[in-house]
Write a structure and sequence with these properties.
single chain; 489 residues; two-stranded antiparallel sheet; 2 strands
Length: 489
Protein backbone atom coordinates (compact mmCIF):
# COMPACT_ATOMS: atom_id res chain seq x y z
CA UNK A 1 0.00 0.00 0.00
CA UNK A 2 2.87 2.37 0.81
CA UNK A 3 4.33 1.93 -2.66
CA UNK A 4 1.08 2.93 -4.36
CA UNK A 5 0.65 5.82 -1.99
CA UNK A 6 4.13 6.95 -2.87
CA UNK A 7 3.47 6.85 -6.63
CA UNK A 8 0.33 8.99 -6.32
CA UNK A 9 1.94 11.36 -3.88
CA UNK A 10 4.85 11.96 -6.25
CA UNK A 11 2.46 13.09 -8.94
CA UNK A 12 0.72 15.20 -6.31
CA UNK A 13 3.99 16.96 -5.45
CA UNK A 14 4.64 17.87 -9.07
CA UNK A 15 1.08 18.89 -9.90
CA UNK A 16 0.42 20.93 -6.78
CA UNK A 17 3.80 22.58 -6.67
CA UNK A 18 3.58 23.81 -10.25
CA UNK A 19 0.29 25.43 -9.36
CA UNK A 20 1.09 26.77 -5.89
CA UNK A 21 4.80 27.52 -6.00
CA UNK A 22 5.43 28.86 -9.49
CA UNK A 23 8.92 30.33 -9.63
CA UNK A 24 10.03 28.34 -6.61
CA UNK A 25 9.51 25.07 -8.45
CA UNK A 26 12.67 23.03 -9.07
CA UNK A 27 14.91 25.19 -11.25
CA UNK A 28 14.06 24.43 -14.87
CA UNK A 29 17.71 24.25 -15.92
CA UNK A 30 18.49 21.70 -13.24
CA UNK A 31 15.29 19.80 -13.97
CA UNK A 32 15.85 19.61 -17.71
CA UNK A 33 19.55 18.86 -17.28
CA UNK A 34 18.76 16.01 -14.92
CA UNK A 35 16.17 14.60 -17.29
CA UNK A 36 18.55 14.84 -20.24
CA UNK A 37 21.36 13.32 -18.25
CA UNK A 38 19.23 10.43 -17.12
CA UNK A 39 17.95 9.77 -20.61
CA UNK A 40 21.44 9.84 -22.12
CA UNK A 41 22.87 7.65 -19.36
CA UNK A 42 20.32 4.98 -20.13
CA UNK A 43 21.13 4.95 -23.86
CA UNK A 44 24.83 5.92 -24.16
CA UNK A 45 26.76 5.12 -20.97
CA UNK A 46 30.00 6.59 -22.35
CA UNK A 47 28.73 10.18 -22.48
CA UNK A 48 29.46 12.94 -19.98
CA UNK A 49 26.63 11.94 -17.65
CA UNK A 50 28.74 9.98 -15.23
CA UNK A 51 27.27 8.31 -12.18
CA UNK A 52 28.84 11.02 -10.03
CA UNK A 53 27.23 13.81 -12.05
CA UNK A 54 23.92 11.99 -12.03
CA UNK A 55 24.11 11.64 -8.24
CA UNK A 56 24.89 15.35 -7.88
CA UNK A 57 22.05 16.48 -10.12
CA UNK A 58 19.64 14.12 -8.43
CA UNK A 59 20.59 15.35 -4.99
CA UNK A 60 20.11 18.97 -6.09
CA UNK A 61 16.63 18.23 -7.37
CA UNK A 62 15.69 16.33 -4.24
CA UNK A 63 17.00 19.06 -1.97
CA UNK A 64 14.88 21.62 -3.81
CA UNK A 65 11.95 19.25 -3.36
CA UNK A 66 12.20 19.91 0.38
CA UNK A 67 11.16 23.50 -0.29
CA UNK A 68 8.19 22.29 -2.31
CA UNK A 69 7.03 20.01 0.46
CA UNK A 70 7.48 22.73 3.05
CA UNK A 71 5.17 25.09 1.20
CA UNK A 72 2.61 22.42 0.42
CA UNK A 73 2.42 20.70 3.77
CA UNK A 74 3.97 23.01 6.34
CA UNK A 75 7.27 21.17 6.84
CA UNK A 76 10.22 20.16 4.68
CA UNK A 77 10.71 16.74 3.17
CA UNK A 78 12.53 14.14 5.18
CA UNK A 79 16.26 14.79 4.86
CA UNK A 80 17.19 11.17 5.47
CA UNK A 81 14.98 10.04 2.64
CA UNK A 82 16.49 12.63 0.33
CA UNK A 83 20.07 11.64 1.13
CA UNK A 84 19.23 7.97 0.78
CA UNK A 85 17.85 8.52 -2.72
CA UNK A 86 20.77 10.71 -3.66
CA UNK A 87 23.24 7.98 -2.69
CA UNK A 88 21.56 5.22 -4.68
CA UNK A 89 23.82 3.94 -7.49
CA UNK A 90 22.97 3.63 -11.17
CA UNK A 91 20.61 5.44 -13.52
CA UNK A 92 16.92 6.13 -13.09
CA UNK A 93 15.09 5.04 -16.24
CA UNK A 94 12.20 6.83 -17.94
CA UNK A 95 13.69 10.35 -17.50
CA UNK A 96 10.94 12.80 -16.44
CA UNK A 97 8.68 10.21 -14.79
CA UNK A 98 11.67 8.96 -12.83
CA UNK A 99 12.28 12.42 -11.41
CA UNK A 100 8.64 12.61 -10.45
CA UNK A 101 8.91 9.27 -8.71
CA UNK A 102 12.01 10.42 -6.89
CA UNK A 103 10.57 13.74 -5.79
CA UNK A 104 7.49 12.12 -4.34
CA UNK A 105 9.46 10.02 -1.91
CA UNK A 106 10.97 13.19 -0.49
CA UNK A 107 7.48 14.35 0.42
CA UNK A 108 6.17 10.99 1.56
CA UNK A 109 7.07 11.36 5.21
CA UNK A 110 5.05 14.58 5.43
CA UNK A 111 2.10 13.36 3.39
CA UNK A 112 1.69 10.39 5.65
CA UNK A 113 1.44 12.71 8.63
CA UNK A 114 -2.31 13.18 8.44
CA UNK A 115 -2.56 16.00 10.98
CA UNK A 116 -0.39 18.21 8.79
CA UNK A 117 -1.34 17.15 5.26
CA UNK A 118 -5.05 16.19 5.23
CA UNK A 119 -6.61 19.61 5.99
CA UNK A 120 -4.48 21.17 3.28
CA UNK A 121 -5.30 18.45 0.77
CA UNK A 122 -9.02 18.78 1.52
CA UNK A 123 -8.78 22.50 0.90
CA UNK A 124 -6.88 22.02 -2.37
CA UNK A 125 -9.38 19.40 -3.54
CA UNK A 126 -12.13 22.02 -3.56
CA UNK A 127 -10.30 24.28 -6.03
CA UNK A 128 -11.66 25.41 -9.40
CA UNK A 129 -8.73 24.00 -11.35
CA UNK A 130 -9.28 20.52 -12.74
CA UNK A 131 -5.80 18.96 -12.45
CA UNK A 132 -4.56 20.09 -9.03
CA UNK A 133 -7.69 18.93 -7.11
CA UNK A 134 -7.36 15.61 -8.91
CA UNK A 135 -3.87 15.10 -7.45
CA UNK A 136 -5.13 16.06 -4.01
CA UNK A 137 -7.98 13.56 -4.33
CA UNK A 138 -5.55 10.82 -5.31
CA UNK A 139 -3.33 11.60 -2.34
CA UNK A 140 -6.26 11.49 0.08
CA UNK A 141 -7.35 8.14 -1.32
CA UNK A 142 -3.82 6.82 -0.80
CA UNK A 143 -3.92 8.04 2.79
CA UNK A 144 -6.93 5.76 3.16
CA UNK A 145 -8.28 5.33 6.67
CA UNK A 146 -6.44 8.44 7.86
CA UNK A 147 -8.39 10.60 5.40
CA UNK A 148 -11.75 8.82 5.69
CA UNK A 149 -13.30 11.02 8.43
CA UNK A 150 -12.30 14.23 6.65
CA UNK A 151 -13.75 12.98 3.34
CA UNK A 152 -17.08 12.05 4.92
CA UNK A 153 -17.21 15.39 6.71
CA UNK A 154 -16.51 17.21 3.42
CA UNK A 155 -19.76 15.88 1.99
CA UNK A 156 -21.46 18.67 3.96
CA UNK A 157 -19.07 21.44 2.92
CA UNK A 158 -20.50 24.58 1.27
CA UNK A 159 -18.11 24.17 -1.68
CA UNK A 160 -19.93 21.98 -4.21
CA UNK A 161 -16.68 21.04 -5.96
CA UNK A 162 -15.36 19.65 -2.71
CA UNK A 163 -18.58 17.68 -2.23
CA UNK A 164 -18.29 16.22 -5.75
CA UNK A 165 -14.64 15.23 -5.34
CA UNK A 166 -15.18 13.85 -1.86
CA UNK A 167 -17.87 11.56 -3.28
CA UNK A 168 -15.38 10.44 -5.93
CA UNK A 169 -12.71 9.77 -3.32
CA UNK A 170 -15.14 7.72 -1.20
CA UNK A 171 -16.03 5.77 -4.33
CA UNK A 172 -12.39 4.81 -4.78
CA UNK A 173 -12.15 3.78 -1.14
CA UNK A 174 -15.37 1.76 -1.40
CA UNK A 175 -13.83 -0.24 -4.25
CA UNK A 176 -10.90 -1.22 -2.02
CA UNK A 177 -11.52 -4.49 -0.07
CA UNK A 178 -9.78 -2.85 2.88
CA UNK A 179 -12.87 -0.65 3.34
CA UNK A 180 -15.60 -3.26 2.77
CA UNK A 181 -16.93 -2.69 6.29
CA UNK A 182 -17.25 1.05 5.64
CA UNK A 183 -19.22 0.86 2.39
CA UNK A 184 -22.69 0.98 3.93
CA UNK A 185 -21.72 4.01 6.01
CA UNK A 186 -20.46 5.68 2.83
CA UNK A 187 -23.74 4.81 1.07
CA UNK A 188 -25.81 6.31 3.87
CA UNK A 189 -23.72 9.48 3.81
CA UNK A 190 -23.84 9.91 0.02
CA UNK A 191 -27.50 8.99 -0.68
CA UNK A 192 -28.99 12.31 0.56
CA UNK A 193 -26.77 14.17 -1.92
CA UNK A 194 -28.87 12.79 -4.78
CA UNK A 195 -31.12 15.78 -4.10
CA UNK A 196 -28.20 18.22 -4.39
CA UNK A 197 -28.31 19.68 -7.91
CA UNK A 198 -25.34 22.02 -7.51
CA UNK A 199 -22.69 21.84 -10.19
CA UNK A 200 -22.37 21.42 -13.91
CA UNK A 201 -25.81 20.17 -14.86
CA UNK A 202 -27.87 17.66 -12.92
CA UNK A 203 -26.99 14.37 -14.61
CA UNK A 204 -23.26 14.53 -15.24
CA UNK A 205 -20.75 13.53 -12.60
CA UNK A 206 -19.66 17.18 -12.39
CA UNK A 207 -22.80 17.84 -10.37
CA UNK A 208 -23.23 16.68 -6.79
CA UNK A 209 -26.35 14.68 -7.66
CA UNK A 210 -24.65 13.09 -10.68
CA UNK A 211 -21.59 12.15 -8.64
CA UNK A 212 -23.82 10.63 -5.96
CA UNK A 213 -25.67 8.59 -8.59
CA UNK A 214 -22.39 7.29 -10.05
CA UNK A 215 -21.13 6.34 -6.58
CA UNK A 216 -24.35 4.55 -5.57
CA UNK A 217 -24.73 2.70 -8.87
CA UNK A 218 -21.24 1.27 -8.41
CA UNK A 219 -22.23 -0.47 -5.19
CA UNK A 220 -23.32 -4.10 -5.14
CA UNK A 221 -26.25 -3.74 -2.77
CA UNK A 222 -28.54 -1.16 -1.24
CA UNK A 223 -30.37 -1.57 2.11
CA UNK A 224 -34.15 -1.17 1.90
CA UNK A 225 -33.95 1.65 4.44
CA UNK A 226 -31.66 3.62 2.13
CA UNK A 227 -33.94 2.91 -0.85
CA UNK A 228 -36.88 4.30 1.08
CA UNK A 229 -34.92 7.45 1.89
CA UNK A 230 -34.32 7.91 -1.85
CA UNK A 231 -38.06 7.46 -2.49
CA UNK A 232 -38.62 10.69 -0.58
CA UNK A 233 -36.31 12.56 -2.96
CA UNK A 234 -38.26 11.23 -5.96
CA UNK A 235 -41.54 12.33 -4.38
CA UNK A 236 -40.38 15.87 -3.66
CA UNK A 237 -41.58 18.18 -6.45
CA UNK A 238 -39.29 20.96 -5.24
CA UNK A 239 -36.23 18.86 -6.09
CA UNK A 240 -34.88 19.54 -9.59
CA UNK A 241 -36.10 17.13 -12.29
CA UNK A 242 -32.56 15.97 -13.08
CA UNK A 243 -31.87 15.15 -9.42
CA UNK A 244 -35.11 13.17 -9.22
CA UNK A 245 -34.08 11.37 -12.42
CA UNK A 246 -30.72 10.48 -10.83
CA UNK A 247 -32.58 9.12 -7.81
CA UNK A 248 -34.83 6.95 -9.97
CA UNK A 249 -31.80 5.58 -11.84
CA UNK A 250 -30.25 4.52 -8.54
CA UNK A 251 -33.49 2.93 -7.37
CA UNK A 252 -33.82 1.09 -10.69
CA UNK A 253 -30.40 -0.49 -10.15
CA UNK A 254 -31.46 -2.05 -6.85
CA UNK A 255 -35.27 -2.39 -7.03
CA UNK A 256 -35.07 -6.00 -8.25
CA UNK A 257 -33.50 -7.13 -4.99
CA UNK A 258 -35.86 -5.18 -2.75
CA UNK A 259 -38.58 -6.77 -0.67
CA UNK A 260 -42.07 -7.02 -2.17
CA UNK A 261 -43.51 -4.40 0.14
CA UNK A 262 -40.76 -1.96 -0.85
CA UNK A 263 -41.52 -2.53 -4.54
CA UNK A 264 -45.23 -1.92 -3.96
CA UNK A 265 -44.42 1.29 -2.14
CA UNK A 266 -42.32 2.42 -5.09
CA UNK A 267 -44.94 1.89 -7.84
CA UNK A 268 -47.26 4.84 -7.04
CA UNK A 269 -44.20 7.06 -6.52
CA UNK A 270 -42.98 6.29 -10.03
CA UNK A 271 -46.44 6.71 -11.54
CA UNK A 272 -46.68 10.08 -9.83
CA UNK A 273 -43.31 10.99 -11.35
CA UNK A 274 -44.77 10.18 -14.79
CA UNK A 275 -47.23 13.03 -14.22
CA UNK A 276 -44.57 15.68 -13.61
CA UNK A 277 -45.44 18.88 -15.46
CA UNK A 278 -43.25 21.15 -17.54
CA UNK A 279 -42.38 22.34 -21.03
CA UNK A 280 -42.23 19.65 -23.69
CA UNK A 281 -38.71 20.74 -24.66
CA UNK A 282 -37.43 20.57 -21.07
CA UNK A 283 -34.54 18.11 -21.38
CA UNK A 284 -34.26 17.38 -17.65
CA UNK A 285 -38.01 16.73 -17.38
CA UNK A 286 -37.83 14.34 -20.32
CA UNK A 287 -35.06 12.45 -18.53
CA UNK A 288 -37.18 12.23 -15.40
CA UNK A 289 -40.17 10.84 -17.32
CA UNK A 290 -37.99 8.37 -19.18
CA UNK A 291 -36.31 7.20 -15.95
CA UNK A 292 -39.70 6.62 -14.29
CA UNK A 293 -41.00 4.75 -17.34
CA UNK A 294 -38.03 2.39 -17.48
CA UNK A 295 -38.03 1.78 -13.72
CA UNK A 296 -41.72 0.77 -13.87
CA UNK A 297 -41.03 -1.56 -16.76
CA UNK A 298 -38.09 -3.14 -14.94
CA UNK A 299 -40.26 -3.86 -11.91
CA UNK A 300 -42.28 -6.17 -14.14
CA UNK A 301 -45.69 -7.73 -13.71
CA UNK A 302 -46.21 -6.39 -10.22
CA UNK A 303 -46.85 -2.97 -11.81
CA UNK A 304 -49.47 -4.09 -14.35
CA UNK A 305 -52.65 -3.48 -12.28
CA UNK A 306 -51.54 0.03 -11.27
CA UNK A 307 -50.47 0.96 -14.79
CA UNK A 308 -53.72 -0.32 -16.31
CA UNK A 309 -55.77 1.68 -13.80
CA UNK A 310 -53.68 4.70 -14.66
CA UNK A 311 -54.29 4.22 -18.39
CA UNK A 312 -58.03 4.03 -17.78
CA UNK A 313 -58.27 7.26 -15.81
CA UNK A 314 -55.80 9.46 -17.71
CA UNK A 315 -56.89 11.65 -20.67
CA UNK A 316 -56.36 9.83 -23.96
CA UNK A 317 -53.63 12.14 -25.24
CA UNK A 318 -51.74 12.84 -22.02
CA UNK A 319 -47.96 12.50 -22.04
CA UNK A 320 -48.11 10.49 -18.81
CA UNK A 321 -50.54 7.99 -20.38
CA UNK A 322 -48.18 7.49 -23.30
CA UNK A 323 -45.29 6.85 -20.91
CA UNK A 324 -47.37 4.34 -18.93
CA UNK A 325 -48.25 2.59 -22.17
CA UNK A 326 -44.60 2.41 -23.13
CA UNK A 327 -43.74 0.91 -19.75
CA UNK A 328 -46.34 -1.83 -20.28
CA UNK A 329 -45.26 -2.45 -23.86
CA UNK A 330 -41.62 -2.73 -22.86
CA UNK A 331 -42.39 -5.52 -20.38
CA UNK A 332 -44.43 -7.43 -22.96
CA UNK A 333 -41.74 -10.01 -23.54
CA UNK A 334 -39.64 -11.75 -20.91
CA UNK A 335 -37.35 -14.58 -21.94
CA UNK A 336 -39.27 -14.93 -25.22
CA UNK A 337 -42.66 -15.30 -23.52
CA UNK A 338 -45.56 -12.86 -23.56
CA UNK A 339 -46.29 -11.73 -20.02
CA UNK A 340 -49.04 -9.18 -20.67
CA UNK A 341 -52.58 -10.50 -20.22
CA UNK A 342 -54.68 -10.10 -23.42
CA UNK A 343 -57.25 -7.83 -21.79
CA UNK A 344 -54.62 -5.09 -21.62
CA UNK A 345 -53.97 -5.11 -25.37
CA UNK A 346 -57.05 -3.12 -26.50
CA UNK A 347 -55.97 -0.35 -24.13
CA UNK A 348 -52.43 -0.33 -25.54
CA UNK A 349 -53.72 -0.32 -29.11
CA UNK A 350 -55.61 2.83 -28.16
CA UNK A 351 -52.63 4.71 -26.71
CA UNK A 352 -51.80 7.59 -29.11
CA UNK A 353 -48.19 6.57 -29.51
CA UNK A 354 -46.90 4.57 -32.51
CA UNK A 355 -44.26 2.84 -30.41
CA UNK A 356 -46.86 1.45 -28.00
CA UNK A 357 -49.27 0.44 -30.76
CA UNK A 358 -46.57 -1.35 -32.68
CA UNK A 359 -45.48 -3.32 -29.62
CA UNK A 360 -49.09 -4.21 -28.80
CA UNK A 361 -49.58 -5.65 -32.29
CA UNK A 362 -46.40 -7.70 -31.90
CA UNK A 363 -47.75 -9.06 -28.60
CA UNK A 364 -51.00 -10.11 -30.31
CA UNK A 365 -49.02 -12.14 -32.84
CA UNK A 366 -46.98 -13.67 -30.02
CA UNK A 367 -50.05 -14.77 -28.09
CA UNK A 368 -51.64 -16.28 -31.19
CA UNK A 369 -48.41 -18.09 -32.07
CA UNK A 370 -48.28 -19.62 -28.59
CA UNK A 371 -51.89 -20.77 -28.36
CA UNK A 372 -53.94 -19.72 -31.36
CA UNK A 373 -56.75 -17.11 -31.37
CA UNK A 374 -58.21 -18.76 -28.28
CA UNK A 375 -55.24 -17.35 -26.40
CA UNK A 376 -56.82 -13.89 -26.79
CA UNK A 377 -59.80 -15.00 -24.69
CA UNK A 378 -62.77 -12.69 -24.31
CA UNK A 379 -60.68 -9.78 -25.59
CA UNK A 380 -60.61 -11.10 -29.16
CA UNK A 381 -63.27 -8.78 -30.58
CA UNK A 382 -61.82 -5.68 -28.89
CA UNK A 383 -58.31 -6.61 -30.05
CA UNK A 384 -59.43 -7.03 -33.66
CA UNK A 385 -61.14 -3.66 -33.52
CA UNK A 386 -58.01 -2.06 -32.07
CA UNK A 387 -55.84 -3.60 -34.79
CA UNK A 388 -58.21 -2.26 -37.45
CA UNK A 389 -57.94 1.26 -36.09
CA UNK A 390 -54.16 1.09 -36.09
CA UNK A 391 -54.08 -0.32 -39.63
CA UNK A 392 -56.07 2.65 -40.87
CA UNK A 393 -54.66 5.50 -38.81
CA UNK A 394 -51.06 4.64 -37.92
CA UNK A 395 -49.36 3.98 -41.25
CA UNK A 396 -46.17 5.98 -40.63
CA UNK A 397 -43.00 4.39 -39.32
CA UNK A 398 -42.07 4.78 -35.68
CA UNK A 399 -39.57 7.68 -35.47
CA UNK A 400 -35.93 6.51 -35.61
CA UNK A 401 -37.08 2.96 -36.33
CA UNK A 402 -38.11 0.66 -39.17
CA UNK A 403 -41.17 -0.43 -37.18
CA UNK A 404 -44.57 0.37 -38.68
CA UNK A 405 -47.68 -0.02 -36.46
CA UNK A 406 -50.12 -0.43 -39.38
CA UNK A 407 -47.99 -3.07 -41.07
CA UNK A 408 -47.61 -4.99 -37.83
CA UNK A 409 -51.34 -4.75 -37.12
CA UNK A 410 -52.18 -6.21 -40.54
CA UNK A 411 -49.76 -9.07 -39.85
CA UNK A 412 -51.43 -9.66 -36.46
CA UNK A 413 -54.88 -9.74 -38.08
CA UNK A 414 -53.59 -12.29 -40.58
CA UNK A 415 -52.14 -14.36 -37.72
CA UNK A 416 -55.54 -14.41 -36.01
CA UNK A 417 -57.02 -15.80 -39.23
CA UNK A 418 -60.74 -16.43 -39.86
CA UNK A 419 -61.66 -15.26 -36.35
CA UNK A 420 -60.72 -11.75 -37.54
CA UNK A 421 -63.19 -11.76 -40.47
CA UNK A 422 -64.98 -8.74 -38.92
CA UNK A 423 -62.01 -6.73 -40.19
CA UNK A 424 -62.97 -7.33 -43.87
CA UNK A 425 -64.14 -3.74 -44.57
CA UNK A 426 -60.93 -2.34 -43.11
CA UNK A 427 -58.76 -4.73 -45.11
CA UNK A 428 -60.49 -3.83 -48.36
CA UNK A 429 -60.19 -0.13 -47.58
CA UNK A 430 -56.43 -0.43 -47.03
CA UNK A 431 -56.10 -2.63 -50.11
CA UNK A 432 -57.69 0.04 -52.29
CA UNK A 433 -55.40 2.87 -51.16
CA UNK A 434 -53.30 4.73 -53.73
CA UNK A 435 -50.49 2.26 -54.59
CA UNK A 436 -48.03 5.09 -54.99
CA UNK A 437 -47.98 5.38 -51.20
CA UNK A 438 -47.65 2.83 -48.40
CA UNK A 439 -46.87 0.03 -50.84
CA UNK A 440 -45.76 -2.51 -48.22
CA UNK A 441 -48.91 -1.88 -46.19
CA UNK A 442 -51.14 -2.43 -49.22
CA UNK A 443 -49.38 -5.70 -50.11
CA UNK A 444 -49.67 -6.90 -46.49
CA UNK A 445 -53.40 -6.09 -46.57
CA UNK A 446 -53.75 -8.31 -49.67
CA UNK A 447 -52.06 -11.20 -47.87
CA UNK A 448 -54.26 -10.71 -44.80
CA UNK A 449 -57.37 -10.86 -47.01
CA UNK A 450 -56.22 -14.27 -48.18
CA UNK A 451 -55.29 -15.52 -44.71
CA UNK A 452 -58.52 -14.32 -43.06
CA UNK A 453 -61.20 -14.57 -45.74
CA UNK A 454 -59.93 -17.31 -48.04
CA UNK A 455 -62.49 -17.97 -50.78
CA UNK A 456 -64.75 -15.32 -49.26
CA UNK A 457 -62.25 -12.74 -50.40
CA UNK A 458 -62.79 -13.24 -54.14
CA UNK A 459 -64.05 -9.70 -54.58
CA UNK A 460 -60.49 -8.55 -53.84
CA UNK A 461 -58.92 -10.61 -56.66
CA UNK A 462 -59.19 -7.97 -59.43
CA UNK A 463 -57.48 -5.44 -57.22
CA UNK A 464 -54.73 -7.88 -56.25
CA UNK A 465 -54.13 -8.84 -59.90
CA UNK A 466 -53.87 -5.13 -60.77
CA UNK A 467 -51.35 -4.63 -57.97
CA UNK A 468 -49.18 -7.42 -59.44
CA UNK A 469 -48.82 -5.40 -62.61
CA UNK A 470 -48.14 -2.17 -60.73
CA UNK A 471 -45.43 -3.82 -58.62
CA UNK A 472 -44.08 -6.08 -61.39
CA UNK A 473 -40.53 -4.86 -60.84
CA UNK A 474 -40.57 -5.66 -57.10
CA UNK A 475 -40.14 -9.43 -56.84
CA UNK A 476 -40.88 -9.63 -53.12
CA UNK A 477 -44.21 -7.87 -53.52
CA UNK A 478 -45.17 -10.06 -56.51
CA UNK A 479 -44.42 -13.25 -54.52
CA UNK A 480 -46.58 -12.06 -51.60
CA UNK A 481 -49.46 -11.12 -53.94
CA UNK A 482 -49.24 -14.53 -55.63
CA UNK A 483 -49.51 -16.15 -52.17
CA UNK A 484 -52.62 -14.06 -51.44
CA UNK A 485 -54.19 -15.13 -54.74
CA UNK A 486 -53.55 -18.81 -54.00
CA UNK A 487 -55.17 -18.48 -50.56
CA UNK A 488 -58.28 -16.89 -52.06
CA UNK A 489 -58.63 -19.33 -54.98
Amino acid sequence: MKFYRAVSLAILCVGLSQQAIGAQWVDRVEYDSTAECIQNFATTPDNKCTPAKLKSLRLTALTQARTICAQLFGRPGNTTVIKDLGNRPGPISMSHSSIVRTLKVACEADLLNAKLSIPHLISVMGGKDNSVPFYAQKALVQLGALAKPALVSSLKDKNFRLRVRSIGALGLLAADPEFKNDVQAFVSAVAPLLADNAGNGGLGEGSVSGAARAFLEDQSEMPDATLKSIFKIIEEDRVEASARANSIMVVAKFEGGAKEEVKKQLIPILINALQSKGDEDDFDLELLLSAAQHALSDLGQITIPDLVNFLDREPADSRARIRAGRALAAMAWKAGNVVLPPEILPRLLGVPDPEVRYEAAVVVSGLVFKGGPANLGNSLIAIVKGLENVALSDQEQVPHSSANPALESLKALGDIGPEARAAKPTLLKVLNQDPRNKQAIIVEAALSVGRILGKDGKEALPRIEALKKIFADISGFVATLDEAIQLIK
